[in-house]
Amino acid sequence: MKEQGKHFFADKDVQVILGTLLRVGVVLSMSIVLIGGFIYLWHYGNGPVNYRVFDPLKAEYSSVLAIFRGLKSLDSTAIIQFGVLLLIFTPITRVVFSIFSFLIEKDYMYVLIGIFVLCVILFSLSNKLVG
Amino acid sequence: MSVLLFTVIVLVGAFLAGLVGSLTGLGGGVIIIPLLTLALGVDIHYAIGASIVSVIATSSGSAAAYVKEGITNIRIGMFLEIATTISAIFGAVITVYINPGYIAVIFGLILLFSAVMMVRKKVDHSDDDASGRLAVFFKLNGSYPVEGGLKKYGVHNVIGGFVMMFFAGIISGLLGIGSGALKVLAMDNIMRIPFKVSTTTSNFMMGVTAAASAVVYLHRGQIVPGIAMPVTIGVLFGATLGSKILVKTKTDKLKVIFAAVVVFLALQMIYNGLSGKL
């Protein structure tokens, strides 16, 4: 029982750190989205909106590479999209952290499960799923 | 409509969606998608893309708060994520091959289901019978602190929960929502995990699952900066305020009122979906 209690507190510490890390990720990515948003409204605020029909070809920043290219030219929508990308990566870091904590605990079955989950997500990043 | 006006309307709507979503435990996505599609005429595929981003923001943002009140069972989360990540990606891939009208109908049905789950009284089915063979093999049984020690709990029907989570993942990927109601069904009712553990664990999974399908949406061009920006910011601020109020207020009445609104939205989505207006 004593040992289990100790174990639990170690877990809790890791989770507090992780929770804080996630919050930092959210605040950081949201700040970037906000900054991009202000520039976007400044430039295009008076233009018309047209989102009536979904057209995949209209999307300018639909890959990680394209977003980074757009960032170089400081395009406002690319900045927003970069913030969104950071946000998407925030929970993925949580998986990576969990894998490490399982590794420290020497729970190799869960190291494998964690790596599998990570691979599934990375596979979706490979851009092969969208025709 | 100008970009500025559109942004302001969506920002306010998303703020309210996040606020009510967190007060009722429904989540912001299920409200923002009807708002975008029914009220503003946005294509449902764009609405889905924006909503999934807001799911990631709220789930990650509230993780720190959740750690204080409950205890995540990372093993349960990681184990079930095998099901939810695969199925979420699958859902996100097939969503464009389905007639938008049908998606609206499925969305309406999930809304109806969520409304029922919201007003239903939650019963904690957990016990400490830790004899399930799969639960032992995958080390899912755990304990959490109560006054004067640790309370143990056993996880039941692992296969049933896994299958339900697979379904929850497909719905999440297909509709761009966290599908919290389905996850509650899987964890509280089927696997009989105690509330203290299931809420935080479900929150842990929601962000990871949403991230998996968000990547697919991004590649397909469904995440548009002009919509994602006000939706995410609005929902996040609304949800943050909601979680602060939540501690001080009783939400029983609010839930009933809100369930009626959700049923109305659900019928609208189903009607518009069937009549081909979406």
From TrEMBL, chain A:
Top-level division of the source organism's lineage: Bacteria
UniProt xrefs under InterPro entries: DUF1634
Membrane-crossing segments per the record: 21-42, 78-97, 109-126
UniProtKB keywords: Membrane, Transmembrane, Transmembrane helix
Pfam families cross-referenced by the UniProt entry: DUF1634
Protein name as catalogued: Putative membrane protein
Source organism (scientific name): Pedobacter nutrimenti
Automatic annotation (TrEMBL), chain B:
Keyword field: Cell membrane, Membrane, Transmembrane, Transmembrane helix, Transport
KW Transferase (keyword) present: no
Family indicated by similarity: Belongs to the 4-toluene sulfonate uptake permease (TSUP) (TC 2.A.102) family.
InterPro entries to which the protein is assigned, alphabetical: TM_pro_TauE-like, TSUP
Any single GO CC term annotated in Swiss-Prot or TrEMBL for this entry: plasma membrane
Protein name from the UniProt record: Probable membrane transporter protein
TM region(s), chain numbering: 46-67, 79-96, 102-118, 158-185, 197-217, 223-242, 254-271
Main subcellular location: membrane
Localization (cell): Cell membrane
Entry membrane topology: Multi-pass membrane protein
